[in-house]
Amino acid sequence: MTESILQLKHLFFAFPDKQVLNDLNYDLKRGDFLSIVGENGVGKTTLMRLILQDLKPSSGTLDFLPNRQAVPVGYVPQFRNVDAEYPLSIQDFVGLNFAKIGLPWLTAKERRRVNEILTETKLFDIRRRPLGQASGGEKQKAYLAQALLDRPRLLILDESTASLDPIAKTELLDLVKQINENQQLTVIFVTHDIPLARRYGDHYLFLSPGHYEAGNISELTNEKVGAMNNA
Amino acid sequence: MLSYPFMQNAYMAGTLIAIISGIMGVFVIARNMSFLTHTLSEIGFAGAAFGIFMGWQPLNGMLLFTTISSIGVGELGAKSSRRENSITAISALAIGLGILFLSLADSNASYATGILFGSVIGISRANVVQMMILSISVLVVVVVIYRYLKFDSFDPIGAQVKGLWTRTLSVIFLVLLAFSVSVAAQIVGSLLIFILLTLPAAAAKYFAHTVGMMISVAVAFSLVGVWLGLYLSYVTNWPVSFFIAVIEVLFYFSALVYQRIRA
């Protein structure tokens, strides 16, 4: 049986003025591609912040297995502060993730890893292009490459495809799916886009105000989405 | 020109200032802190005036004031709207205090002009040594935390996600900035520090694709500005800060034109 890497047990979270997560239970298995769907304000981002330990649960537990250190997390948010004048090349941007005290420049081994990940994410040929001048899809790939640099075991795509055109969305998710299948990388894909969630996910977690539903992706039918949204 | 000890001191100090400003400037630009740098220079003015009032070296007063305020600003946290307003208030208070201390110290107007607009002849060998110690300290800390600083400055969201201690980093950076402002004020004066701490790096941004390259170009722009400025000031007897300002502004506008042509 596949091992678990993240277990949510009786997870509750409330902001001072609003209850967001209500007795959420989920067992995330290694190598799973979990699509988390739901409308705005149902707690998708809150759940990600809990996983990233940026927030603490009101009650219940959220455990990484066997422990937090054994599950490095890569996170790809929708937005970054990258404007047209952003001065770093794609390569330099990806290398930022090798942050540690000491040597200011990257070692030969670290540079090799940057090149390896640039090749894997199909960015190697444009590695010297300033990130500010890259297309939306290329930028998202660079964010993905940076997140993958130190070999996470769990990758979170938080609405990462929301601002992309359909072709760029497919390209990015094909790439992630390939890494998910080849390297057993566990993926959490947060999205509004139900067809996309269905196309790439293995399982789903549907959040709606006050309750949730989880299951195999084939069970995420249009009828169920409609019923959950109207509940 | 270099046979005069005061010019030797000015060139040594100027070189240190240019290097530190070029390096720190890159992070000032990346962290959008030009406004704060300007305020720190005004706080530096109040500190220098306080130093004179207390009978200290103006640089020591400056270090005291800028360091305390940089930690205070760091504590204000990330809420930028509140920070901007607080900085404006602190800035107004600093200028007021500076004027008060100068008046209480009963110093003459040329002293005030020196603090505000900088001076070539006011730098002693002892000043140069003190500036060297400060500059080396800044450099060592920047080298040690370089990768963290680079990540947090150029990709704050990524750094936060990675779990870097961004709040502490921000305070460390502000203290380094306080040191740099105090050192740079010795030549260009507290009113014009932000020229060296912002313009060379802002111009370098358009010529570089890596942080290392951006730092090299910013240091080069700032060195040319300071060296040429000192020379022109010596020849014409006009204020050095005027020449440095003009040269750096020229670099900046040339960079904008270069960017426009390339686009």
TrEMBL record, chain A:
Keywords assigned by UniProt? ATP-binding, Nucleotide-binding, Transport
Listed SMART domains: AAA
Record has RNA-binding as a keyword: no
ATP-binding: present as a keyword of the record?
yes
Q: Which Pfam families match?
A: ABC_tran (PF00005)
Name the PANTHER family for this protein.
METAL TRANSPORT SYSTEM ATP-BINDING PROTEIN TM_0124-RELATED
The family note in this entry says: Belongs to the ABC transporter superfamily.
Q: Could you tell me what this protein is called?
A: Mn/Zn ABC-type transport system ATP-binding protein
Q: Give the source lineage, highest ranks first.
A: Bacteria, Bacillati, Bacillota, Bacilli, Lactobacillales
TrEMBL record, chain B:
Q: Which residues cross the membrane?
A: 6-28, 35-56, 85-102, 131-149, 169-199, 211-232, 238-258
Q: Where in the cell is it found?
A: Cell membrane; Membrane
Swiss-Prot/TrEMBL GO biological process terms: transmembrane transport
State if Chloroplast is listed as a keyword: no
- Gene Ontology, cellular component aspect: ATP-binding cassette (ABC) transporter complex
Pfam families, per this entry? Answer: ABC-3
* Topology with respect to the bilayer: Multi-pass membrane protein
**Lineage top rank: taxon:** Bacteria
Q: Which Gene3D superfamilies match?
A: ABC transporter involved in vitamin B12 uptake, BtuC
- Its main localization is membrane
Keywords in alphabetical order: Membrane, Transmembrane, Transmembrane helix, Transport
What protein family does this chain belong to? Answer: Belongs to the ABC-3 integral membrane protein family.
Q: What is this protein identified as?
A: Mn/Zn ABC-type transport system permease protein
What is the organism field in this record? Secundilactobacillus silagei JCM 19001
